[in-house]
Amino acid sequence: MGWLRGFLETRIQLLNSRNFIRRYPHLFSKTLCLSTHQMESLSDMTNNRFHHYFGGDEIVVAGKVDPEKKTPIESFITATSADDVNFLLETISEIEALNDFFAQSKHAFPDFAKQYWAQLTINQLLAERNLATTAEAKRNLTKRIMQLSITHHFVTPFTSLLIESEDGKEKMLADSPNTLKGACCQTLAVSTKTTPAPPAPTVTKELECPPPVLRTPLELRADPTESITVPPNCKNNPNAPPNCVDNDPHFIINLPKSQTDVCFNIDAQAGSILNMMSDPKLGITINGKIVTAKKTKDGKLNTYFGTFGLYFQQLNTKIEVSTEKITVKDPSHTREMKWSESSTLTYNRLVVSMKKESNITVTVDNDLSFLIVLHRVWKDHPVNVDFLGLYFPSSDTFSDTAHGLIGQFMKDPEISVYDLRPGTIPEKPIATMNVKGKQLTVTRGVQKEFHHNRINGTSVTCWFVHNSGKGFIDGHYKDYIVPQLYSFLKLH
């Protein structure tokens, strides 16, 4: 699938989305939309709504760009598949990018983009003329077709091309087509039936044309410093930080009843798969796979979560989120989403919303949401690797069977902290924590969560439990190791 968008005088920016085709080959009711603030700088757009079944043919949309407004073009492609999957793809491209593309191509000529726009527009007008119901409408369309064909040197059913030699002795007339059959280009589907447009969802940016219905509000872009909104499932304290695991790996547990945050680290081996949440009654399990840094730093080999697996048993759907891609699988289909694009997939009571190179939110029945944040490191970094963070708020949505390194705290155990006293480091006092009938020595410290600021993080003051959370979590952290990415936790 490709489209040409906007030309600056004689140039049109070209964007090719072949990977989109390979992953979603059977879509219909496709629409290319532009942000309303960009419509002032764009004009003469060709058809952007296609209702025919898409099986890999070419779809092109073109339009003019105001020479005075050379801002990047932001577009949104919406589509619906035969199995009722709603898809949203966001693209952001620089207008001048096509110049470099044409400069590298020995087959392209300078006015190619402008000529292509003219051809699309003429073919579209010919199709509209076929459907015109009045003589006046036909005349007006014929006039526009002839004007464009003369300006851009196209032969149409209403024009001919006279070819003359330099000395004027030889002339040849290129006959015009004697029928309008086939005048409609491949990119335009003509139908006498009106297909009602679906209602527009609530989105954070107004679109010029409505996308298919989505089940949750959706932020279409994400700046690294923008707030990533986590659904307010935490009913006791909506402003509290969510329960999460991030960095190498640091767990932050928010306990609303005690109005306290508790932190602990896990030092697992590379390749280990740890259970974050297991709720057999709801049929939900979330596991994370450990990866390590490339080499030790200050005598320590840091570990991170490189992959998360989410299994929704009642929906028979598995979602694998890695630092490379996102895969959504059920018994009959496998769909891939890339971090290089913003997109939304609505399917089987699930909404999977991804922000380009930032984060992905998985929402079930518009009620239960999980956020996974992507952390990129410098390319070819000598030590660090890309990794992921997992976030979800305290919630009473889970059943009483919920467990896991984070899931066990959905029951919100009550704790008390007392006997505050100086520690070996003045700014890190120690205290005694009473939790689950145990007395633990804890240290006041600061950890970072990244659901508000993906780059620098937000500091969270918490009571730190040593020895991989021993005494705070049930059992030992090794009890939470599971054999597969989609395994449920089996409690001993």
From TrEMBL:
InterPro entries: ITI_HC_C, ITIH. Pfam families: ITI_HC_C (PF06668). This is Inter-alpha-trypsin inhibitor heavy chain C-terminal domain-containing protein. The lineage of its organism: Eukaryota, Metazoa, Chordata, Craniata, Vertebrata. It comes from Ranitomeya imitator. Residues 282-467 form the Inter-alpha-trypsin inhibitor heavy chain C-terminal domain.
